[in-house]
Amino acid sequence: MSTLKVSLPPHLREVLEPLLGILPKELDLLLESSLANAEIAYAVIDDVSKWAHTSSGQETLQSKNLNPRDYDRLALLAGTVTGPSQRLPPPEPKPEPWEVAQDEKNTRRAIAALVNGLFSVVGIATAVWWASKTTGYSYETRVGLAVCGGLITALAEGGLFAIYYNRRESRRSYRAKEREKHHRKLQRRYLKSLKETTADHDTVSETIPKDESKEEKVPEEDIPPAEEPDKPLRKRAVGNREEDE
């Protein structure tokens, strides 16, 4: 039986409880034990749905005034949550585009190296075969020389490919270490700036504010009186004209 479980909301519990006592014995026991928990196995819901679609199951449900359509798999799983108590693993980080391009480039290089090695083995074996024709060796000796030449070439190509692969992996690990080093450097710089900002804020907050009640007051007698505004000039009539005094 599958270990996958789903949540058991109230509406699903209300739909499944009327089935107790009318299901087959084994399925009835499984359903009864599942309803006592907050989760129910997906296999139990699947078995209930399969039973509800059988002819005997439909007759039993109709005799209890229950709608067989309510026990479809989709209807039973509606509103449930898959594995609420199971902690799923975190998703893997998405690789950077340049890393994907670099991996594809390395894959093409590896395939080209393997094809080149295969052609080298075949070419060396063929060359040894044709070169040994003029030596007067027997057919078996010529075949042995060709096979030995091919094996030696294969070993050489395999060694070169191993060196290339090790260098590629070392460069990849070096880039990963450099990225981690750069990330740690940025993190330390950020923490340092955050600490300095916090220290400046604490220094400003600890500064004693100026007490206005202790400010030196100027005595009232030292305050010069306010100057009165000039009075407007009085005018008098001289003949038909007015002149200022």
UniProtKB/TrEMBL annotation:
Sequence ranges of Acidic residues compositional bias: 218-227
Example GO BP: vacuolar proton-transporting V-type ATPase complex assembly
Membrane-crossing segments per the record: 111-131, 143-165
The organism's place on the tree of life at top rank: Eukaryota
Region span, Disordered: 172-245
Composition-biased stretches (Basic and acidic residues): 193-217
InterPro entries (alphabetical): ATPase_Vma12
Biased composition range(s): Basic residues: 180-192
Matches recorded under Pfam families: Vma12 (PF11712)
Keywords attached to this entry: Membrane, Transmembrane, Transmembrane helix
Entry protein name: Uncharacterized protein
Organism: Serendipita indica (strain DSM 11827) (Root endophyte fungus)
